[in-house]
């Protein structure tokens, strides 16, 4: 039987969105995931190559999100290897899906669910929503947003946790603001400084360097 997951993970509860105001301060909510304030982490995919997990574990980071899937059928070729490596080396780990606006939301959810086990102690699933490398919607705006909500609801039902939305300020303004996604913690890419959106996680660099990974990595920081 699958174990349903709804967790408080470390010390301080972070964010469920309650509004879309201009302040960068996170909005607290006691019924979502949490990190130590300012905890540092990274996200990885096959683009980062093979990971030396023992070396990476010396970097002073505490959490990692791993790319699992993209669209209806793509699976990241390093996901299972990275997933096992992260757990074996006691990382606070979660998986994410790159969502394609031109594909079916339910089938995208099925793709993710097939690859990512329900594991006690995992970070909530995350969905990457951005313009880069995406495709033009095939349906109306309303139908596309409804499809995205089907995807998110399927993940919440499977994993017992509200999915995190990774996004950029531009994508958020165009697609998400005022459209009923306020229950989802935000993971915001903002390379010029802290996000002006309420956020749970801030991706502050795409050119980080860490032991155990060759080349640049994305670096993230939990809200303080």
TrEMBL record:
Residues in the signal sequence: 1-25
The protein, known as: Glycosyl hydrolase family protein
Organism: Hyphomonas hirschiana VP5
InterPro entries per UniProt: GH, Glyco_hydro_25, Glyco_hydro_fam25_subgr
GO terms under biological process: carbohydrate catabolic process; cell wall macromolecule catabolic process; peptidoglycan catabolic process
The keyword Signal is assigned to this record: yes
Family under the similarity heading: Belongs to the glycosyl hydrolase 25 family.
Keyword Hydrolase in annotation: yes
Molecular-function annotations in GO: lysozyme activity
Keywords assigned by UniProt, alphabetized: Glycosidase, Hydrolase, Signal
């Amino acid at each position: 039987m699958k174990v349903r997951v709804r967790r408080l993970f470390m010390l301080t509860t972070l964010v469920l969105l309650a509004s879309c105001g201009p302040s960068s301060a996170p909005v607290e909510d006691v019924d979502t995931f949490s990190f130590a304030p300012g905890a540092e982490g990274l996200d990885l995919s096959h683009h980062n190559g093979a990971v030396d997990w023992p070396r990476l574990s010396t970097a002073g980071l505490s959490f990692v999100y791993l790319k699992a899937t993209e669209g209806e059928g793509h699976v990241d070729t390093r996901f299972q290897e990275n997933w096992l490596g992260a757990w074996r080396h006691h990382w606070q780990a979660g998986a994410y899906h790159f969502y394609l606006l031109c594909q079916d939301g339910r089938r995208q959810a099925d793709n993710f669910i097939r690859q990512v086990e329900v594991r006690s102690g995992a970070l909530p699933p995350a969905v990457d929503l951005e313009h880069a490398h995406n495709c033009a919607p095939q349906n109306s705006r309303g139908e596309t947003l409804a499809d995205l909500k089907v995807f998110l609801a399927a993940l919440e039902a499977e994993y017992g946790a509200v999915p995190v939305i990774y996004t950029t300020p531009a994508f958020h303004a165009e697609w998400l603001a005022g459209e009923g996604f306020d229950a989802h913690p935000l993971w915001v890419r903002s390379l010029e400084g802290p996000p002006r959106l309420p956020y749970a996680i801030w991706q502050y660099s795409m050119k980080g360097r860490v032991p155990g990974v060759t080349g640049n990595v994305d670096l993230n920081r939990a809200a303080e």
